[in-house]
Amino acid sequence: MAHMIDLSNERENMAYVGRRPWHGLGNELTPGADLDVWRVEAGLDWSVNRSTVRFDTDEEGETEGTMTDRDVLWRSDNQKALSVVSSGYKVLQPGAALEFFREFVAAGDMEIETAGSLDDGRRIWALARIGEDFTLMGQDRVSGFLLLATSFDGSMATTAKFTTVRVVCQNTLHMADTMGNQPTVRVPHSTSFDEDRVKTALGIRESAWADFGDLADELARTRVSPMDARRWLIDAFGDPSKGVDEQSEDAARLMQRVWGSVQDSPGSNLRSAGGTAWGLVNGATHYLDHARKYRSDNNRLSSNWFGEGAKLKQRALRSALKMVA
Length: 325
Hints:
By secondary structure, the chain is α+β, with helices and mostly antiparallel strands.
């Protein structure tokens, strides 16, 4: 099932500041808005309640039974059910997701950029911009963000991860280190969310953003041959055990379209991208974020942040990192 922007209460439950997001959705806020304003305008001013599962035990519905180990999670604002979960399912409340960023916003280190909910509120997120950008080869500017998201239906753990936006084309990419690992923290719903532990694990106060800037610079300085590019396409989007002429029809079509974005997407002619490993990664992210057809912009957002698109972009990045000396 596609995860859509939540339209409960007859509104788009998402807000943003600055430039309209690449997916074209949301309600604009004034920069510097208080977190309490964000909570209301992003449609996160509700809480998740829980009740024991009850069921009819006869055809007339006159006799009732209960499941003591199962709860219904439901919204406080419209009383709509979100899911049935185990009694031990730990919930990070919508307001708490925004509160995670309060100390950073107050210190001027971050600013909330977007926040909202998907699929009738079953998933929520908040995205904050990190204070510093970096520029590759004097032209190619990249902005950093921290994404916090959770689910109330078991579809994903509470997840905090760094992500980037390439300014010239609004490509989005989850950060990774030199081994291709994402600086990501996942808290399963069997465990209570500990804000301090998550921040420590992410290394927010350390060098994750600076390290990714160094990695991006290496990718931008790594020249690739046509043979390198072909191997990258197969490794990231095809079956690495097969030659280019042996790929499935779907894989061959995907590789062809990604290659078109590598050659022609915005910023592909910059020194950092033309004929480089960084250019390969951004060709892939541009195709998945902007050129690929989706049923709606809602599907585009969900896929590229949480679903297939996010996984394909990470495969593209990991494959490109193999070229870095």
